[in-house]
Amino acid sequence: MNNIKHIFFDLDHTLWDFETNSDIAFAAIFKKYGVNTSLDKFLNYYRNINENYWKLYREERITKEELRIGRLRDAFAKIKYQVDMDLIDNLSVDYIEYLPKNNQLFDGTFEILEHLKPNYKMHIITNGFNEVQFKKIENSGLTKYFDKTITSEEAGVKKPNPIIFQYALQQTNALPSESIMIGDNWEADIMGAKNVGFDVIYCNFNAKPVSENIKSVSKLIEIKQYL
């Protein structure tokens, strides 16, 4: 892989431990607003609901606001906990504020970035919201490792739309043949980048079946075997 000059990372679920940080944020805002229900029960439903809402958002089938409100409304409905829309609105706003205050990263994040930084230009491509993603990167100590951060709001489309990858190449003066995408989402990161001509490494942290012709790792530090 001597031709690779640019490494593009996904952020959430790849470097930044979204589930852990999200759980901490919910614990804080539930306490703030006196939400008197089992947090574990809520989160058990919320995680899948949130994943489905993000899929709809990637596919341009819902708006940012529908994602922020709908995922909370549906999770509370699942556990049959009565909440009014004012509380849901307050929770959705505070969740976005609290989320980047908690910045646990996956094991090996700093070690692999230190390993890669001397030899490659590194960037981030993320579908997350601008007002949150840049805070996550700064607060978690990742800023110094990355030259460019490309967000879907900036590009106008979301992964796996080829336009965001083409936009990223333009912003970084990179060619597809010298670029590799590293991420956890098969559809958005791996297939999206591969379809534009990037090489790819799949962060297969949940040990899903993977085609033999796709490079994959179960831990970030295993990226060393490829780069």
From TrEMBL:
Domain of life, source organism: Bacteria
Keyword Hydrolase attributed: yes
Matches recorded under InterPro entries: HAD-like_sf, HAD-SF_hydro_IA, HAD-SF_hydro_IA_YjjG/PynA, HAD_sf, PGP-like_dom2, Pyrimidine_5'-ntase_YjjG
Keywords, comma-separated and alphabetical: Hydrolase
Record-level Gene Ontology MF annotations: 5'-nucleotidase activity
Keyword Hydrolase recorded: yes
PANTHER family: PTHR47478, PYRIMIDINE 5'-NUCLEOTIDASE YJJG (PTHR47478:SF1)
NCBIfam families the UniProt entry points to: HAD-SF-IA-v1, YjjG_YfnB
Protein's name in the database: Putative hydrolase of the HAD superfamily
Organism: Lutibacter maritimus
Biological classification of the source: Bacteria, Pseudomonadati, Bacteroidota, Flavobacteriia, Flavobacteriales
